[in-house]
Amino acid sequence: MMRTWIPAFAGMTLALSAAAQEVAVDVGHYAAEPGVISASGVPEFEFNLALASEVKAELEKHQIDVRLIGERGDYAVLHHRTRDARGADLFVSIHHDSVQERLLPQADRFAGFSLFISRQNPKQERSLACASAIGAKLRGAGFTPSRYHADPVLGESRPFADETNGVHYYDNLAVARTAAMASVLVEAGVIVNREEEQRMRDPQVRRRIAAAVAGGVRECLAREP
Ligand SMILES: [Zn+2]
Prior knowledge:
Number of strands: 7
CATH architecture: 3-Layer(aba) Sandwich
Radius of gyration: 18 Å
CATH class: Alpha Beta
CATH topology: Aminopeptidase
Structural class: alpha/beta
CATH superfamily: Zn-dependent exopeptidases
Largest sheet: 7 strands, mixed
Helix content: 40-55%
Distance between the termini: 35 Å
Strand order of the largest sheet: 2-1-3-7-4-6-5
Bound molecules: zinc ion
Shape: globular
Number of domains: 1
Order of helices and strands: HEHEHEEHEEHEHH
């Protein structure tokens, strides 16, 4: 009896784990250091929390399990985020962007989304596939890559991993470097730009961004790892 029962049970767990994929959705920054301050004075953490919650809802609609990381604003140590994501299939960190301090007076010139991956992540190929898929979905929804992070003067010379879809290499990025699973950091938009901040605060725009991010995640997770 044992012999027939054990393989059946093992098969069942396999089927279950294949069906339920899990994504760690990380809310960038924390209460004591809430990130960029937007053009109108709102801390980035609030934008990140609102968008991450929306991404969670979109993924759950499609039967993907979500582990929110940092939603209470209490994660000061970056590698604790990836540590607490262990077991997830993908780590997606949600952020909103700024520009270099000396360019803040011209911040309204800068707009768009950016995606970052690390070549030090153990699942570099999947990280790139997921970032490209997210970028493609965002473009399909009418959003544009910001591009300036690749620029040596306007940005930080972060080379493109996929220029069309706004994906850059940022090898030393803690939440990508320390993750055991594939990892992508999303800068949804530039909130030091007055117009773009208003767009990012619009619930309908937020929903469209979240749907695009979730759509890209679903697409890359559906492929072989
Ligand atoms: Zn940030």
